[in-house]
Design brief:
The chain has three helices and three strands, in the order H-E-E-E-H-H. The protein is α+β, with helices and mostly antiparallel strands.
Length: 107
């Protein structure tokens, strides 16, 4: 359907204007309550995740989260200047094996 294509375009436009991964940070989840904004699945306690900023028109910006494995999908949905760029991450407190994993997944 053409209507379905229009909905997909609107979703992509909303992603482009709403989320900013350019200042993203990698971290371990502090609880099991967060969900990935890409796949909507829970992010387990102590699981590696990326935090991104969500902009709101009428109130303060907020923090949202992306699974490490969903970074490429996130980057495909947002404008180039809003992409998650692992080379900018501060990996302080992240285990060396997890640093390598992030760098290998998020190209």
């Amino acid at each position: 359907d053409d209507d379905d294509d229009d909905d997909d375009d609107e979703d992509e436009e909303e992603m482009e204007s709403r989320y900013n991964g350019s200042s993203a940070q990698v971290e371990y989840a502090r609880s099991g309550r967060s969900r990935c904004i890409m796949c909507n699945l829970p992010i387990a306690n102590r699981e590696l995740r990326v935090s991104v900023m969500e902009r709101f028109e009428y109130h303060e910006d907020g923090q949202r989260f992306v699974h490490i494995g969903c970074i490429r999908r996130f980057n495909d949905m947002v404008a180039a200047h809003q992409r998650i760029v692992p080379s900018r991450f501060n990996f302080y407190g992240i285990q060396p094996a997890d640093v390598r994993r992030v760098r290998s997944i998020a190209v």
